[in-house]
Amino acid sequence: MRRSFIPFAALALLLGACQQDVVVNTPTTPPAEGFVSQPNTPAPTSANTVDAVPARDMRLDSAARPQWLQNRIQGILATRKRNPVIRISRYQFEGETVYYESAPCCDQQSTLYDAEGKILCHPEGGITGKGDGKCGNFAKRRTNEQLVWQDPR
Questions:
Q1: CA R_g for the chain
Q2: Backbone angles phi, psi at 44, to 5 degrees
């Protein structure tokens, strides 16, 4: 059996480099007046960014929503706000109207519903990021994207 080792001096150097007391402070309050340092450097804002997904430049679709979708939206609003916020979009996919609900976080899966509210598949998310594999061509074949709703909180 072969043993690998790091010479003691190299190990001490690595540990020493990792134990630097580095403190990073990001200001979230603006200065009393003017700019931070340079005339072209704007002052930081006091508002922190909490939505990891940038807002898309899409207009909210004002068409009537099916009752099952209204119920789903009420269910989402009854829970805590997610980060990123949940968005529901309507598409045309394989000749049918479908509704796509974004995943609320991390390794959770997004959901694709048919026009009656039946779950068709989970196109994205999960540990692999590829959803459940039941509608793998959704991202390539979807058309006519319309933002139907996004969590306003």
A1: 24
A2: -70, 155
